[in-house]
Amino acid sequence: NAFKNTPISPCNEFKSIKKAKEYLSEKLDQKISLDNVATETGLSTYHFLRVFKKNTGITPHNFRIQKRIDRAKIFILQGMSLTQVALETGFTDQSHLTNKFKQYTGVTPKQYLMN
């Protein structure tokens, strides 16, 4: 694809990153490959990864985990069980949710609920 090798303008780069953020924020309970996101933006995988990190300061993977944690916070405050929160936000199980939640927020989901 010739388009993938063509340098993109900052405006188009911004549009690509915006589209990627929207795509990464959807269907948080499903697995999405880096190749799929890059294809959605019309960029090569490597170029997408570089442009995304340059524009956001984080990798697409970390962006997606942060979105999942943000969604988990809402579900936790709504009183959903941690097992269900894990399922709804794409974590493999409650333990995976708790570990990532603590890594990203500094507190466990239960501590978050108590604050």
**Spatial gap, N to C terminus:** 51 Å
How would the global form be characterised? elongated
Task: Give the overall average pLDDT.
Answer: 90
The largest pleated sheet is described as: none
Give the percentage of residues in beta strands.
under 5%
Radius of gyration: 16 Å
Helix content: over 70%
Number of DSSP helical runs: 8
In terms of per-residue confidence, which ranges show pLDDT below 50 for 5 or more consecutive residues? Answer: 1-5
Structural class: mainly alpha
Number of strands: 0
Note the quaternary state here.
single chain
Strand and helix layout:
Elements: H1 2-5, H2 10-25, H3 34-41, H4 45-56, H5 60-77, H6 82-89, H7 94-105, H8 109-114
Structural notes for this entry:
- The protein is built from eight helices and no strands.
- Helices cover 73% and strands 0% of the residues.
- It is elongated and about 45 Å long.
- It has 115 residues and is an all-alpha fold.
- The model is unreliable at 1-5 (pLDDT under 50).
What brief labels describe this structure?
mainly alpha
Brief summary:
This protein is mainly alpha-helical. It is 73% helix and 0% strand.
